[in-house]
TrEMBL record:
Protein name as annotated: histidine kinase
Transmembrane segment boundaries: 276-298
Organism field: Methanolobus vulcani
Coiled-coil ranges from the UniProt annotation: 299-343
Keywords, sorted A to Z: ATP-binding, Coiled coil, Kinase, Membrane, Nucleotide-binding, Phosphoprotein, Transferase, Transmembrane, Transmembrane helix, Two-component regulatory system
Residue span(s) of domain Histidine kinase: 350-561
Record-linked SUPFAM superfamilies: ATPase domain of HSP90 chaperone/DNA topoisomerase II/histidine kinase, Homodimeric domain of signal transducing histidine kinase, Periplasmic binding protein-like II
GO-annotated biological processes: osmosensory signaling via phosphorelay pathway
Catalytic reaction equation(s): ATP + protein L-histidine = ADP + protein N-phospho-L-histidine
Any one Gene Ontology molecular-function term assigned to this protein's record: phosphorelay response regulator activity
UniProt cross-references to InterPro entries, sorted A to Z: BphY/WalK/GraS-like, HATPase_C_sf, HATPase_dom, His_kinase_dom, HisK_dim/P_dom, HisK_dim/P_sf, Sig_transdc_His_kin-like_C, Solute-binding_3/MltF_N
UniProt superkingdom: Archaea
Pfam family, one: HATPase_c
Amino acid sequence: MNERNLTPDESNKTIIRLVARTFLVFITLSFLLVPCAGANSTMELKVGVYPNEPLISQDQNGTAVGLYAEILESIATKEGWELRYIPGTLEQCYQRLDNNSIDILPAVPYIPEIEQHYILTSEAPYTDWGIVYTYKGSGISSMNDLSGKRIAHVDDIFYENFNASPGNGNTSYVFIETESYMQIFELVERREVDAGIIARSYGELHETQFNLQKIPFVISPTDMVFALSEETDPAVSEKIDQDIRQMVLEDGNIQYLSNKEENNAENLATWESPSWLKFSVGIGGGLLLIFLILSLTLKNKVEEKTYELNSKNRELEVEIRERKIAEEKLKQYSLELKNSNELKDLFTDILRHDLINPATVIKGYVEFLIEVEDEPRKKDAMEAIERNNKKLIELIENAANLAKLENMDDMSFKTLDLKEIIEEVIEHLIPKLEEKDMNITFNPSAKYPADVNTTIEDVFSNLIGNAIKYSPSGSNINIDVKDVDDTWEITISDEGEGIPDEEKPYVFDRFKRAHKVNIKGTGLGLAIVKRIVDLHEGTVEVFDRTDRQGTTFKVTLQKTKI
């Protein structure tokens, strides 16, 4: 198709029509902007401030400072909120949350007692815990060394949890209450007390000022979140969580707008101009555009190319930013994983050494007292102590075992006969079977060779033991092994009351178990079963029996590779 060249007269008419249409569009948009000028309103939020350095506090000028104040200021700038800070003690702030005279209280522990009364955010910018400091040369290096010592504290969650710990009930401590963490540091340094409990956040900020040392265990790790009153708009909590998740993470720290230049830039981006200014800019812009179009018509082709180049540059900039954010998130995840593993190792060491030893000592003394006690009431009480201590030892051993298994990525295997393993487990459980007058039906037809680790015995011991525990007296347990392709399918079926369908998906989760009347447990046994089977690259399932009432657990393991 041949293109016709426009005459100068036609070109002028085309430009005039373009200018007229553009002018009309600007006039229309200018009038539309007038009623929208006051549409956005600023939300005012009242924020409680209490002394909790360095998370939240007030400086000498009465300005709210600290990690949580800066995070909240950054979020408020982005969301267009106006914050009004109301200072007081922690107790006063909680009372103001109760009577709805403040909307938000920063840096509160995420614990059930507080969650029952207030709306808590789910994202925690910081996790705090208690640390015990002592002076150098005190001879205190573990929790056991604190017995009979003078311990300084403030009335906080870490002292409460330390004092309420089950293992501390029979331990003699001399608690000395103080008014501040700084006073604790000073008392310990002057050796007027032997040790002091201080929040990690405050301790890491001020510990370099004193010649002290830390005891290597942690007290009550707690996520510190924002609490909202019940009458505060729930959307505020959602916005806080959303904005915290979107903040760029670097070296384990949340990056937010914290200097004046950044705040000014953010404020400039969200400033709402008055209606008269919008109207004037619209009219003036329309008139100015008439002259700009006339002068830039001949440069149209150059502008198109420039726009294309700018668009490509912006796309490259966005891609670079996204890659940088992804790298920072991977770096943060790696750091969090390292810290999590270190904390888990510390917890496992405490379980294996600091908790199991006193529980074992209790077991020996109680067994001796039962043998020599003749008074029935005292003997019944000691037998109750013995039963509960056995449960405590089982809990500690299971928790330590599970923590060890979760730290393992693989394990060594050798060829073992599943038939012999199952028969050995049954033999160990004969006293429990006789106690409930129960039978186990297991008729192996041959050997069942499989490449397994010796921990597989714990799987069958746990599943068969549960079948005995949750089945009625006089019932029967069926164990069967089937050859299915390259695997062995081992099923263990009981005649108990069964597991409701809604609870089956959670039976292998830690600290979750099906509801059983008059039966208590830690919920760790099946979690250990699942972890061991996963390390064997096998599967474990649970379903109802089809022939009668009861539950069947099925474990699938790989055969020995020939």
